[in-house]
Structures are given as structure tokens and as C-alpha cells.
Write a structure and sequence with these properties.
159 residues; alpha/beta; two-stranded antiparallel sheet
Length: 159
């Protein structure tokens, strides 16, 4: 059995480690199969690739109908939340603002969030929490010096 301590506490140290108290924050692998209906529908689909980089035309057209003052080029379609967050943080970082380049965040967080903030050229600032709740005094004090606040749902993957 591998003993983990501060010296070897890197993601690589967890490869192959198993145990009931270990929760993987990596790729989602559901422990339940999809509903039977999914198996009936899937054979009718032949294209399981990511769409074109700018987003599928029918989706962009549907969005322009929903938002009549827009054009298809008004929308950025992403393949996932992390990609959307990355683009959003880069825009916030490059926008002229008086606040320092800092993003207020909660702990725990999705593993890539601090890196996305740093890749955008900003600094993550962490909120104090008390029994899973944001310390509002700490929030009021720190939010004034931040360009954005990133709050995620820490219940994933533990429910």
C-alpha cells in the first residue's frame, strides 16, 4: 500500500491507488448504465464527433431566432464548461478595469479552475468557508479587489 504524505502528494502518486475513502476528481465514469431507451436511440445516430469549431449552423441559427438583435457570429459555442470558462476568464483578464487581475474562488473547486485563472494571467484568491458555506465577511472584504467571482458546486462527484 502506498503511504501518501506532503512530499509525494502529486496526481501521479494516486495512479493505481484504490480504497473506499478515495474519491476520483478525474474523468466522470458513471457506475450506473444508461437507461434502456438510450440503447434503442443510439443506433440511429452516426456522427459522434465534436462539431465544427464555430458551432453547428442549426444551433447558431436557433440562437439568432431566440435573440433577434443578434447574428450567428454573436455566439461562441464551446465543447464544454471548462472551455467556456477559459475564454470568459481571458476576456475578463484583458478588459480594462481598475480591479487587480484576481478571481475570487471557493474551495473545494474543480481541479482545473485555478489553472484556468492563472493561464488567463490572473491570480486565484480563495474565500474562507465555514461548514461548506461562504464566510460573507471574508467575501465582502475580498470581492472589492477582484475582477470576477467563480463559485462552483462542490457536491460533484460526491453527490
Amino acid at each position: 500500500m502506498t503511504t501518501l504524505n506532503k512530499e509525494n502528494l502529486s496526481p501521479a502518486a494516486f495512479i493505481g491507488v484504490r480504497g473506499k475513502d478515495i474519491i476520483s476528481f478525474g474523468s466522470g465514469e458513471p457506475d450506473l448504465p444508461p437507461p434502456e431507451e438510450v440503447y434503442k436511440i443510439l443506433p440511429h445516430y452516426t456522427d459522434f464527433k465534436y462539431g465544427v469549431i464555430q458551432g453547428l449552423d442549426y444551433l447558431r441559427d436557433a440562437l439568432t431566432r431566440q435573440y433577434p438583435d443578434s447574428t450567428a457570429d454573436s455566439f461562441v459555442i464551446t465543447n464544454g464548461a471548462s472551455e467556456a470558462l477559459d475564454l470568459t476568464l481571458r476576456v475578463i483578464s484583458n478588459y480594462e478595469m481598475s480591479q487587480p487581475k484576481k478571481v475570487l474562488m471557493t474551495k473545494p473547486y474543480y481541479y482545473s479552475y485555478p489553472r484556468l485563472v492563472e493561464f488567463a494571467g490572473m491570480e486565484p484568491v480563495y474565500l474562507k468557508t465555514n461548514q461548506g458555506r461562504i464566510d460573507m465577511d471574508d467575501f465582502r472584504k475580498k470581492v472589492k479587489d477582484c475582477r470576477a467571482v467563480l463559485i462552483n458546486s462542490p457536491s460533484n462527484p460526491t453527490g
